[in-house]
Automatic annotation (TrEMBL), chain A:
A GO molecular-function descriptor: branched-chain amino acid transmembrane transporter activity
Membrane topology, as annotated: Multi-pass membrane protein
One GO CC term on file: plasma membrane
Protein name: Branched-chain amino acid ABC transporter permease
UniProtKB/TrEMBL annotation, chain B:
Swiss-Prot/TrEMBL GO biological process terms: D-alanine transmembrane transport; L-alanine transport; L-isoleucine import across plasma membrane; L-valine import across plasma membrane
GO MF annotation terms: ATP binding; ATP hydrolysis activity; L-isoleucine transmembrane transporter activity; L-phenylalanine transmembrane transporter activity; L-valine transmembrane transporter activity
Residue ranges annotated for the ABC transporter domain, each copy included: 6-254
CDD domains per UniProt: ABC_Mj1267_LivG_branched
Protein name, UniProt field: ABC transporter ATP-binding protein
InterPro entries listed in its UniProt record: AAA+_ATPase, ABC_AA/LPS_Transport, ABC_transporter-like_ATP-bd, BCA_ABC_TP_C, P-loop_NTPase
Keywords, sorted A to Z: ATP-binding, Nucleotide-binding, Transport
GO cellular component terms, semicolon-separated: plasma membrane
TrEMBL record, chain C:
Membrane topology listed for this record: Multi-pass membrane protein
GO biological process, one term: D-alanine transmembrane transport
Record bears the keyword Cell inner membrane: yes
Native source species: Ureibacillus terrenus
Annotated TM spans: 6-26, 59-78, 90-112, 141-159, 189-211, 266-285
GO cellular component terms, A-Z: plasma membrane
Name the record gives this protein: Branched-chain amino acid ABC transporter permease
CDD domains reported in the protein's UniProt record: TM_PBP1_LivH_like (cd06582)
Family to which the UniProt record says this protein belongs: Belongs to the binding-protein-dependent transport system permease family. LivHM subfamily.
InterPro entries found in the cross-reference section: ABC_transp_permease, BCAA_transport_permease
Length: 312, 258, 292
């Protein structure tokens, strides 16, 4: 009962945010710059949450998330620009193909652990990127021209569905199996959990939503290029998850919102941005390696505060 | 007695060139409580690991309920009905006590990923059943008061109990306990032994118990196997084992070496 | 003989990979950390060598030694400041920090001097060619190979014949036991970083002298590929790193030579994935299984 109450509160809050932005956009109170920023925030939240299920929940260290984003971006762009299909079909195809890519990458590489898995995912992401670089059909290094189609409504629904699916998954026997793998893979196996299966499932779900985010990203700019999906992009997504708190969905959402906002203001100073990113990341890892939120969710923090308040 | 529940035939395993365990022949009948003892490094845990699929024996065969379980993965062995505890506690430390038990209960539930993601009625039904059953298990072990506590925050003795509760939640026919009383004081040990006797009756369990401490096993096991240097050196009732010169030598030898 | 020519090119590229790979493998062997910043130490070495040659008008060998010393110091600083606290941290925290350090070095460099490339003067190494079996062999290649071999022999000597080498092997085998035996683990780890970083610095100068173009992001790809070489050879194994480096260099050169130069970088990653899946311990590595 308690859980479902929190759910309706969050949903209501989300709808209010959506409506406010929508009304403000309609009345031209938010200009294009801020509209674009809001959409970028949404895309980055989706990327963060979709990596969170892989790293934060299942404990599998993937540093090639941008590869699946690239798959989604290109697949959706091919659908809309080359095949003339509607945007929504492009988005769905992006998710489906990225999920298949996640399956193909995940099945062999998730047998590896820790550092080796990390480096293998990085390798796969690079191979994906280099493949797009070499396909003339999608423009090679010059990139592919894409129409602007992503709207606030698409971006908002994208975030809502991503969070809903991933948090529903997490709060079920399936999500608990993934958590068990994160905590102790050998014990999880001994308790009857098919660890390989759940690692792959988490990876595929993560890839699916990275693909959808990629589709929204592709149609939010006028061009996509392979370089946009390099290791730097994977690193950026990783920062959201690690900084927000490994295992905290709300943590990665907050980190994604915060860092996207900061980096928008630092757009003119890319080096400074990267220096700040890396220094913050190193400091957090050295002094608070669980990330800012740890494994706690926003509701835990509030609950603690309330309890602390009543005791005082 | 008809067929034994589990049977090890000429089981052995090599790591590199080293024979860790060899020529082990064991059987456990349904409902028995059997002890596996031996000095440090005798191969007790290795035998457990072979029984649970962590290691695949390089020689011999293991059958459970008449079917070979050799080569199965640990989770598959668990699904067949063998579950275990670990010598050095392996709880899911950062999860709650309740979640620890629920995870072991996982493979007994049926609701699909899709039903959970879409929050279909089968999800709520399945999760509700898991919750109820898991709390029942916690109650047996007196752990229900700690259900929302993180496993790592439990006192040591309670962590040992939770390990057993968790193994039980996996619905085993054969329960393997790897030094469940390690690090406990005599009172805690006695309570634990009583508890083991209780769950055995309650759940109609067959139990194989590893213990380093011989005196402890003597009191509760019906039959005992003794391993030394990777080989079985004796088998029999506690009385027979106590008087077996080979066993005395194995244990005394260890003490002399120490 | 076109093929022989390509083989020589492959060997010179491979010796650079091998030198960088040695640092990865030594550090991984001792603290189980993929030091992502290692490729950037290689970049810093290239720049130190560049300044030594152009500003201070040093010859190749003095510049090489200067770069090695500076990089050794940088390596120790990185270890002491960033990695030392991580010895008992989770893998994810350690690896993330290493990636962070890598980006910090790269972008600090860009911040201070911009991203523009520099060019090593052409005459650092003599511009001569020798003809062997019809293949034109650049004198540079021979020079690089000699320097690489000397450094590797020196490393083998340090690891197997000196006290610090013994300490390094002991710590990588079992750090706790080594500590109990009176080995100063902290200093041994620092020494490992110093030696590994010096080799990366040397690789940087050799890279500059051979390919001339250097820039602040030059360490990223060679760094990753050297890591692949280390994995290929079996991480933790010194001869493995050397062999892995040469194999990778030769394979890449062949892939380019047969007309797939755009796929060259992918080839390295494909090798990585194949080796991880088929023989994760690498060519010379040992299998380790987790104790249950």
């Amino acid at each position: 009962m308690k859980k479902s109450k929190a759910f309706w509160v969050y949903l209501a809050l989300a709808l209010v945010i959506y409506a406010v932005v929508q009304v403000m956009t309609a009345n031209e109170m938010i200009d294009l710059y801020y509209q674009n920023m809001l959409i970028t925030i949404c895309i980055n939240i989706m990327l963060a949450v979709s990596l969170h299920i892989v790293i934060g929940i299942t404990g599998q260290f993937s540093i090639g998330h941008a590869g699946f984003m690239a798959v989604g971006a290109y697949v959706s762009a091919i659908c809309t620009m080359k095949l003339g299909l509607p945007f929504i079909v492009g988005i769905i195809m992006a998710g489906v193909v990225a999920a298949i890519a996640g399956l193909l990458v995940g099945v062999p590489s998730l047998r590896l652990k820790g550092d080796y898995l990390a480096i293998a995912t990085l390798g796969f992401a690079e191979i994906i990127r280099i493949t797009f670089l070499n396909i003339d059909y999608v423009g090679g290094a010059a990139g592919m021209v894409v129409n602007h189609m992503t709207t606030w409504t698409y971006a908002f629904l994208g975030v809502l569905i991503t969070i809903l699916v991933i948090s529903n998954f997490t709060n079920s026997r399936h999500g608990r199996s993934c958590l068990a793998i994160r905590e102790d893979e050998i014990a999880a196996d001994a308790m009857g959990i098919n660890t390989t299966y759940y690692k792959v499932v988490a990876f595929v779900i993560g890839s699916l939503f990275a693909g959808v985010a990629g589709a929204l990203y592709a149609h939010n700019f006028y061009i996509i290029q392979p370089t946009a999906f390099n290791f730097l992009k994977s690193f950026e997504i990783l920062i959201y998850v690690v900084l927000g708190g490994l295992g905290s969905l709300s943590g990665s959402v907050i980190a994604a919102i915060f860092l996207t906002t900061v980096s928008q203001y630092l757009q003119a100073f890319p080096e400074t941005r990267m220096i700040i990113y890396s220094v913050v990341l190193i400091l957090v890892m050295l002094y608070r390696p669980t990330g800012l939120m740890g494994t706690k969710e926003l509701k835990d923090v509030f609950r603690l505060k309330k309890r602390g308040g009543s005791e005082a | 007695m008809s067929n034994p529940l589990v049977k090890l035939e000429n089981v052995g395993i090599q790591f590199g060139g080293l024979k860790a365990v060899q020529n082990v022949n064991m059987y456990i009948n349904k409902g028995e409580l059997v002890g596996l003892i031996g000095p440090n490094g005798a191969g007790k845990t290795t035998t457990f690991n072979m029984l649970t699929g962590v290691y695949t024996p390089t020689e011999g065969d293991i059958t459970f309920e008449g079917k070979s379980i050799k080569g199965l993965k640990p989770y598959q062995v668990t699904k067949r009905g063998i579950s275990r505890t670990f010598q050095n506690i392996r709880l899911f430390k950062d999860l709650t006590v309740l979640d620890n038990v629920k995870i072991a209960n996982h493979h007994l539930a049926k609701h699909s990923i899709l039903s959970s993601v879409l929050r279909l009625p089968s999800h709520f039904k399945g999760e509700g059943k898991m919750e109820k059953e898991s709390i029942e298990f916690l109650k047996i072990f007196g752990l229900d008061v700690y259900k929302d506590e993180l496993a790592k925050n439990l006192p040591y003795g309670m962590q040992r109990r939770l390990e057993i509760a968790r193994a039980l939640a996996a619905g085993p026919k054969l329960l393997l306990l790897d030094e469940p009383a390690a690090g406990m004081n005599p009172q805690e040990t006695q309570d634990l032994m009583d508890l083991i006797a209780l769950i055995r009756k309650e759940f109609d369990l067959t139990i194989l118990l590893i213990e380093h401490d011989m005196s402890l096993v003597m009191g509760i096991c019906e039959r005992i196997y003794v391993l030394d240097h990777g080989q079985l050196i004796a088998e029999g009732t506690p009385e027979e084992i106590r008087n077996n010169p080979k066993v005395i030598e194995a244990y005394l030898g260890e003490e002399v070496k120490n | 003989m076109d093929w022989l020519q390509q083989l020589f090119n492959g060997i010179s590229l491979g010796s650079i990979y091998a030198l960088i790979a040695l640092g990865y493998t030594m550090v991984y062997g001792i603290i189980k950390l993929i030091n992502f910043a290692h490729g950037d130490v290689f970049m810093l070495g290239a720049f130190v060598g560049f300044f030594a040659i152009t500003r201070w008008e040093m010859g190749f060998i003095p510049a090489l030694i200067t770069a090695m010393i500076v990089c050794a110091i940088i390596g120790v600083i990185i270890e002491r400041v960033a990695y030392k606290r991580l010895r008992n941290a989770t893998r994810i925290a350690a690896l993330t920090t290493a990636i962070g350090v890598s980006f910090l070095i790269e972008y600090t460099m860009i911040f201070f001097r911009g991203a523009t490339p520099e060019a090593y003067p052409k005459n650092v190494l003599p511009e001569k060619t020798i003809e062997i079996l019809g293949a034109k062999l650049d004198y540079k290649i021979i020079f690089i190979l000699i320097v690489t071999v000397i450094l590797m022999v020196l490393l083998q000597f340090i690891v197997h014949k000196t006290k610090i080498g013994k300490a390094m092997r002991a710590v990588s085998y079992d750090a706790d036991a080594a500590k109990l035996m009176g080995i100063n683990v902290d200093n041994t780890i620092s020494a490992t970083f110093a030696i590994g970083s010096a080799l990366a610095g040397a690789a940087g100068v050799i890279f500059g002298a051979y390919y001339t173009r250097i820039d602040p992001l030059m360490g990223v790809l060679p760094g990753l590929k050297a890591f692949i070489a280390a994995v290929l050879g079996g991480i933790g194994s010194i001869p493995g790193a050397m062999v892995g480096g040469f194999i990778l260099g030769i394979v890449e050169t062949i892939v380019s030579a047969v007309g797939y130069s755009l796929w060259r970088d992918a080839a390295a990653f494909i090798i990585l994935i194949l080796i991880l899946l088929l023989k994760p311990a690498g060519l010379f590595g040992k299998n380790i299984r987790e104790k249950v």
